[in-house]
Amino acid sequence: MKNKKLFFIIYISFLIICLIALITFSILGNKKRICYLGDFKFDETHINKTLELNGFNIEETKKLFTIDNILNNDDLTNYIFTNENITNYSYGFRIKYYSKVFRNSDIYGVYIDTNKIINDNNFIKSIKMYENGSPYGNLVSAKIIDFEKIDNVSYRLRLKLNFVVFIIFIFMFFSIFIIPFSNKKINFLYDRNYKKNVFANLLKYLFFIFYIVFIIIGIYHHEPWRDEGQAWLIARDLSLLDILFQTGVEGHPFLFFFIIKPFTALPFYPTLHIINAFFMIIAVYIIIFKSKKYNLLLLFFIIFNDIVMYEYPIIARNYGLSFMLFVLMIYFYENRYTKTTRYVLSIGLLLNTTVVGTSIGFIESFFFLYKIFSKNNNTFIKKKLKDIIILYLFLLAILFQILIMVYKRSNILSFIKNEQFFYLLSLLIVLFAAAVFFIFVYLKINNKFTLPKLTQNKEFILKLILLVVFIVSVNAFYRLSDRHLFIFILYAIYIIDSFFIKKPDLFKLSLDISFILFIVYFYGFNINVYINDIKYDFSFSKKAAKYIKENQYDDKNKYIIIINGSHFLSASISPYFKEKIIYDSGLDKFITFADWVEKRRNNKYNNTNFITNINNKTIISLDKEGNGLKYIKLTNFEGISESITFYMVTNK
Q1: What is the DSSP letter of 606?
Q2: Structural domain containing residue 115
Q3: What is the pLDDT of residue 350?
């Protein structure tokens, strides 16, 4: 009863604090502030709207600037801006802020005073903002906008409905299921050691079935974009040895590319997403049905958030594989000294998935090996020698890749100009590390030394320190995003939870609630991202590839598709073709994304001479250079992530 009363007081206090915070945010956001309109856009959509506003027949007008079924977009735009009969111009714009704090975000939507803007700027006839407090909108102007901004725009911020509803849901959830935690009927929701319960098992199966259905729908509708195409092309176009050297540019180790390489022989490019979803389903299955680390409440929020529901399973990068191996490592941890091989394999493979996996895998490897070598019983070390060697081979593999990564992604080793010499030097460093380790093992087996014991408190502190060091170091080197930090956060939860495992139930419940609030705050599920991915094309790369095939632009005898600075477009389109179809004169060869490391290093960015000198083929370009040549727009594909524009290029 005493514990229940204490928890109730803590909960009510927390509820009051959060309500005060919500009211404060609402009041501060509602204060009138000044911003400006900028990033004015006059693209194909606004060209059509402008013609419509002025009573022009859109199709008939475009025919005037179409030769051989090719619309000259530049001439059409010039016609609109020089035609005296056109007095209404449609523009897109974005709200820009002077304040670095009070702006649209996941919490706030932005709302401008459109009437004041029209009154202050008599050339503006109407303004229409996108929905849900979006900073984007369209306006109709009586004159051409050739300036950078429209200033002195009043705006207010309002809390987003999704955010408020979600906060209310969290408190309702806690009120219903957690406050009466002494009720035996619902103990299974917060008790980590609950006995078998029919309702608990039903919830688990519902979680799992919903997760599978959710991501199947997601990957069915998701269109791969440049990062996913990049991974596929690296696996498809490079040998296993070359993939190791590509680590420097890709920024992640080899394992994911090795796994998907056999599947690149299949004609079905979305195989990549099926493989990735398979990894995530295994991980979620282990968390729900096998792991005893989490109660159902914490388990629910670990699974149902932006990252595990969308980022990892639907966007097919190597994070799904990394997450699965991280979950396996935690699951095998308790039996790491009895069933050592499976634990060692999970760490070793995790080391070679992502930079985050490398960081966590190194921390676990260090403490695992240290504890083994601090044992006085050398018989145990001899029994585990095979597993020790396996783990160290994985560590040597990642050491070699890290050396390459540092060499290719920073200036630290720039004084070594010869690449072949550097690769040889890296190999010698790896062999030296192997020799030192085996000498170390030999001396330990022969009782030449004993490492000091490591207490639980020291291990806890050292792990947290190393974790912070890796987060700071990787961020400086790689620029971490939310998807990277998520596994770091789960690992921190795992470390803290393991240290306090013997604390009273009330303390552990409070700890779990803290973990839940932390995850919810940073990774609350944004259903709009998922819905937009289903409703709209992500990058239009599939339609762009279809356009190339239908127009036979992939016929290298008649056409040549070139690219200059927009290398990501190559990564988006190329996977739909079994051979390289995009040519880069800077490299003097047909390329995919894997070739771009060479170009970026040598700064070969200009197609001008190539375009000027080619005569026997029609040139199709995926980007437009400011080189004085004529770029005639063929068509445009614009997705929610990126747009692809095709140009016919000539020097005539």
Answers
A1: -
A2: 32-66+85-162
A3: 96
